[in-house]
Amino acid sequence: MNRLIVIVGPTASGKSALALELARHFGCEIISGDSMCVYQGMDIGTAKPSQAERQEIPHHLIDIRKPGESFSVVDFQQLATSAIESINERGKIPLLVGGTGLYVQALLEGYQFNPTPNTDPRSELDINIPESVVTSVLHDKLNSVDPVAAARIHPNDRKRIQRALEVVTAEHRSISCDKISPDPTLLFDCIVFGLSMERQDLYRRIDARVDRMLEAGLVAEVKSLMLQGVPADSTAFQAIGYKEIAACLEGEVSLEEAVARVKQSSRRYAKRQLTWFRRMSYIRWIGQVEGPGAITTFQMAASQVAEKFAIK
């Protein structure tokens, strides 16, 4: 089995910083497990590693799509698996870091996704859902009964949402994938770390990071994407930070309100991430430890990696 180190956790929890420390210490190459870091020109709002960091440590699955292009969990599975194999062949340990729970879990557990039909036949569910029911309400309902499918389907894609709900209702199964086990067998020889901290500390970190993004030029970055003609309904523009700032640039809300929305959406996203990752029983949770003589997060992770892979 190919070796793999994984770091997951909510946004702003320090995943990238820990990944860089471990990569430097063990000579790893890093694979991004973030669904939005694949897009070119979306650097500030996705908190991509800097060019200097990427020159120091090889990074994979970053800047591989144009903002208007699609990128799916299946694409991620294929590309990440290929990167893991090639890095292992070079005698190094790949380090997967990211917060997109579906992507990480699908890769580690080998989800087999069902193909989405090109056309959706009319069904009883289609007929019984009035057009007055907004699509977001349907997506929320799908998220409550099949969160994996909801994570894959765009919140505005009414037909696919209805089809997924139909399968759950009529066939009592998930449309999303064929392999979800409460006791999964992982496809890699891996160690999986989850970063945790007190919620209020996390929220403070989130707010501070959003402020830094604004200072670094997030508004100009979003404006540049809009001038390039990136569609407002594209997957890229659904990223937190981009859709809110775009609304500001369109004159729908003030910058102050847009920033408040970015912070609120980021906090809500962090809660969803934690909910997702806590279902993954194989994660080893490590927290931020402070005080004189305290063992750092890096030291805790490094010692476990060394033991796992018998590295002296």
Model description:
It is a single chain. The chain has 312 residues and is an alpha/beta fold. The protein is built from 13 helices and six strands. A six-stranded parallel β-sheet has the order 3-2-4-1-5-6, sandwiched between helices. The protein is globular and about 60 Å long. The two termini are 21 Å apart. About 4% of the residues have low confidence.
Write the layout of secondary structure elements.
Blueprint: E1 3-8, H1 15-26, E2 29-32, H2 51-56, E3 59-60, H3 73-89, E4 94-97, H4 101-109, H5 124-128, H6 135-145, H7 147-152, H8 158-171, E5 189-196, H9 199-216, H10 218-227, H11 242-249, H12 255-277, E6 284-287, H13 297-308
Parallel strand pairs: 1-4, 1-5, 2-3, 2-4, 5-6
Helix pairs in contact: 1-13, 3-4, 6-8, 9-12, 10-11, 11-12
Helical residues, percent? 40-55%
Shape: globular
* Sheet of most strands: 6 strands, parallel
Query: Which strand order spans the largest sheet, edge to edge or round the barrel?
Result: 3-2-4-1-5-6
**How much strand content do the residues show?**
5-15%
Element pattern in H and E:
EHEHEHEHHHHHEHHHHEH
Please work out how many helical segments DSSP would assign. Answer: 13
The count of DSSP E runs of length 2 or more, i.e. the number of strands, is: 6
Task: Give the termini separation.
Answer: 21 Å
Q: Decide which structural class fits the backbone.
A: alpha/beta
Low-confidence stretches: 116-128
Radius of gyration based on Cα positions? 20 Å
Mean pLDDT: 86
